[in-house]
Amino acid sequence: MKVNLQAENALEWLAIKLNLAPRPLIDTQVSFSTARAIMVAAELGIFEAIGTQTKTADEIAQICQIHPQGTSHLLNCLVGVGYLQWRCAKYSLKRTYQKWLLNGSEANLIGKLRFQLLEWEWMTKLEGYVRSGSPLEVHSTMSKQEWELYQKGMRDLSFNAAKELARKIPVPKGAVSMLDIGGSHGLYSIELCMRHPTLTSTILELPGAIESATVIARKYDKTGRVKHVAGNALTDNLGTNEYDLVLINNLSHHFTADQNRSLAIKVAHALKPGGVCAIGDMIRAERPGEGGVVASTFGLFFSLTSSSGSWSVSEMQSWQKAAGLIPEKTVAAMTIPGWKMIIARRAL
Description:
Number of strands: 10
Oligomer: single chain
CATH superfamily of the largest domain: Vaccinia Virus protein VP39
Number of domains: 2
Helix content: 40-55%
Strand order of the largest sheet: 6-5-4-7-8-10-9
Distance between the termini: 39 Å
């Protein structure tokens, strides 16, 4: 998936064709202004204030308790970038975006957009990281409030993906126990337990994340078969022959190659014979550029914020093979561009 420079009239089309349009400025000034406008609108409650109706700038400003002139400029920007419509001095949210930007939709991304204001601050440290090679290691420094924003953002990213992947993960027949490492909000565990009536899940999560994660999980879990346990998968004993399925989603990019290999060995011991190990994450291309824009930008972001960055399919499979697991199919997710789940199984 790629964000393309698109002409809006014949003159702009010709400028792009002749390489006269200043593409680097479009990719920077226009892109970061657009991104910030959308994130700020989410933070201020502007999308929710509009809802499915039409309202004037003054009405929206009054609902959100913000300045009318600043509100008008922001709304006009959102019209220009295609999120809002303007007619007869009133603004409305395009139907396409109502799914993603209104709290009444469970698929909304408002939490993730608000969390991105924090991620924006992290990205301002990119130059220093490239100069020094020292990542931020954000998970060791986040406050309670930042953890809450983080968990809500991860819920947003996972809501649709959890439903899709619950249908695709090859859960062993008659499975009764799974370990969800770093499962936070619990949506993956909840969807799997809903599809498999005998399955129970233990979510192993960092102590700092437990409180906000369980609040989200309680909202969605109707099975009563999902529980959280505070711990650290890198240092804790995961047991032996205990689980039919071990799920590791969006976690490997936080760990070094050695840590991922060690974790794979622990997971292999924790699996029952025939048990499944599923590692899901944004995938780094085998060769630069092959994975597209989403994979390459996330790879850079993860390298800044954590210990390593994203990994390729072959690298992730190498950890599983070294642990004695047998690689199986790789599952792609339509709901998360650039993301895949690497499946392996312990021999019977």
